[in-house]
Amino acid sequence: MGETDGSPEDHSEIMEATHRALCEHGYASVTMQDIASEYGKSKALLHYHFGTKADLMGAFIDHLHDRFEQELASLEGRPDERLEAFIDRFFVEYDEDDRGELHLALLELRAQAPYDEVYREKLEESDALVRETIVDIVREGIDAGVFRPEVDPEALARLVLASMYGARTRGLTMGDEAYARAVRRDLWEAVIEPRRTESAE
Amino acid sequence: MGETDGSPEDHSEIMEATHRALCEHGYASVTMQDIASEYGKSKALLHYHFGTKADLMGAFIDHLHDRFEQELASLEGRPDERLEAFIDRFFVEYDEDDRGELHLALLELRAQAPYDEVYREKLEESDALVRETIVDIVREGIDAGVFRPEVDPEALARLVLASMYGARTRGLTMGDEAYARAVRRDLWEAVIEPRRTESAE
Q1: Contact B114/A155, CB-based, under 8 Å?
Q2: Which of B108, B100, B18 minimizes the C-alpha distance to B62?
Q3: CA A48, CA B77: separation in Å to the nearest integer?
Q4: Which residue, A143, A168, A163, A53, is CA-closest to B110?
Q5: How far is CA B145 from CA A3, B139, B201, in A?
Q6: Could you tell me if A167 lies within 8 Å of chain B, comparing CB atoms?
Q7: Average pLDDT of B91-102?
Q8: Which ipTM value was assigned to this complex?
Q9: What are phi and psi of B42, to 5 degrees?
Q10: How far is B5 from chain A (nearest CA, A)?
Q11: How many CB atoms lie within 10 A of CB B134?
């Protein structure tokens, strides 16, 4: 499961239909029929390609993971600028192109992870990608002399990720659009700026 | 809705039954029948006292809010010690007395907040209580000379809350028990310790 027997175009269209249906209905409420309607084909065909709703959601997490990797590869600039751009893109400016609704659906799905090993493993991979991206950026920043040499990349990545993940979750669920931006500013003032070298200023 | 017509003992017993049923089944799956079974009385009686599942859940958030206020009042010691005790109690050592399962059920409920104004308002009150508790502790700490006078209590509270909320959410959903403890340590090293005065050491 998790792959269509059809063409890559079928797979891509089903992923886009899943994306739209999730944003419209949320994870808990969305049905295979909702997704089939967005796809414009029968529910039976969807079940034939992907099995259950859980199987399709697993394939959808993989799809997001791939898209996310491509977006990460497109980040440009000095390491400290890339860190800021990355955080803004994924944790602050999530309202652009309905990303907020997608994050909300993924939060519902994450809340099911304790009861679903497949979801847990796939979200673990996704979390690892975010963490490793931040660790790599900080390491490059230390090598390039923009972050202080005594900075622990793993510890810094953990704190950045936990705070911005918490900020996005609370901001989205409470409908408080300014919250993630405020936490980002606090994090920069309290944690990032003191770890930059003078040559980075 | 939200109050039993019966005695305070009825109300308290129903809240405890709701607590046990939520920990057992999670928010999405739990039914009025599950809660009635824990209560040891009929589902009809539960509906008579509390209306719908959403009404009962609203009353349960109020109940947790009251219990939480009582626990906060019992915190003792110097402000910086109280901050540490508060964070450990609510965000790190959540596995004691099944609090982890309760937090998971509340995360599911929070994921529904964008679609439910009552949940959103009640969770907003609960978030405000946590935030104001941290702000008050930091203010007292500045007055008592254990935190530096230039610390912004609102900004510090926001960063502490976002990071520990994110740490608890990720730790619980991914089954990673050590994660919240690691973030707590990172937060103390990077944010709290540099804001304490030498007289607090």
Answers
A1: no
A2: B18
A3: 62
A4: A168
A5: 61, 10, 11
A6: yes
A7: 78
A8: 0.87
A9: -80, 155
A10: 31
A11: 22
Residue type, A167: A
Residue B114: the pLDDT is 85
**Tokens, residue A75:** 């980040």
Which residue is it, tokens 């390039």?
A144
Beta-carbon separation of B124 and A159 below 8 A: no
In angstroms, the CA A65 to CA A74 distance is 15
- Between CA A129 and CA A119, with CA A126 as vertex, the angle to 5 degrees is 160
In whole angstroms, give the CA distance from residue B150 to residue A157.
26
Distance from C-alpha of A48 to C-alpha of A56, rounded to nearest angstrom: 11
Q: Burial level of B172, CB count in 10 A (0-12/13-18/19+)?
A: buried
Per-residue pLDDT of chain A (201 residues; tens, 9 = 90+): 445 457 888 899 999 999 999 999 888 889 999 999 999 999 999 999 999 999 999 999 999 999 888 888 888 899 999 999 999 988 888 766 678 888 888 888 888 898 889 999 999 999 999 999 999 999 999 999 999 999 999 999 999 999 999 999 999 999 888 999 999 999 999 999 999 997 765
Nearest CA in chain A to B103: A111
Asked if the Cβ–Cβ distance from B167 to A167 is below 8 Å, we say: no
**B28 in A contact zone (CB under 8 Å):** yes
Are the C-beta atoms of residues A61 and A105 closer than 8 Å to each other? no
The residue with tokens 């009042």 is B73
Radius of gyration over every alpha carbon of chain A, rounded to an integer in angstroms = 19
